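Fill in residues.
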């Protein structure tokens, strides 16, 4: 079998996504054995997920900012700017806390399904507890969540620039 991209080269492996044959240089180009086309598709999909997270955090931030300003005007009290910033931080932090907890609680929820006594009430209780924890710890998770988003965007840009250099 020969490499899909280099027909004169003997294949040593295949792409884990599409199964295309890869020569030694194509096989070791990325951290995992993947062809350029599939790697590009993965980077596009990852970037869409990251952009969605950014948009959700921005919408939550704008809504909470509008709510804080509306409350200040309605009450006739001019909040200090730092109070408004903290309020926005806390609301956006709930989303960040929920995302962080989701990576942990998915495993717990699978176990939880086996011990349900009143299924609907137990699941509602589980999600209310999860929401409470997200509210309490979300503001702590937010800086790390933002750091991960920035780091992943940078990695995607590096992969794309490396791909353009290879073409």
């Amino acid at each position: 079998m020969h490499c899909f991209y280099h027909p004169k080269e003997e294949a040593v492996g295949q792409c884990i996504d599409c199964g295309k044959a890869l020569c030694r240089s194509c096989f070791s180009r990325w951290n995992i054995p993947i062809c350029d086309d599939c790697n590009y598709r993965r980077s596009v999909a990852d970037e869409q997920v990251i952009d969605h997270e950014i948009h959700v955090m921005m919408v939550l931030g704008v809504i909470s900012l509008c709510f804080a300003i509306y409350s200040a005007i309605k009450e006739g009290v001019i909040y200090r700017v730092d109070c408004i910033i903290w309020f926005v931080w806390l609301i956006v932090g709930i989303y960040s806390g929920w995302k962080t907890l989701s990576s942990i609680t998915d495993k717990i929820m699978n176990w939880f399904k086996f011990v349900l006594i009143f299924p609907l009430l137990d699941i509602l209780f589980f999600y209310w507890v999860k929401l409470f924890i997200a509210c309490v710890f979300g503001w702590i998770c937010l800086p790390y969540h933002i750091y991960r988003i920035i780091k992943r965007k940078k990695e995607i840009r590096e992969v794309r620039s490396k791909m353009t250099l290879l073409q």
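The radius of gyration is 23 Å.
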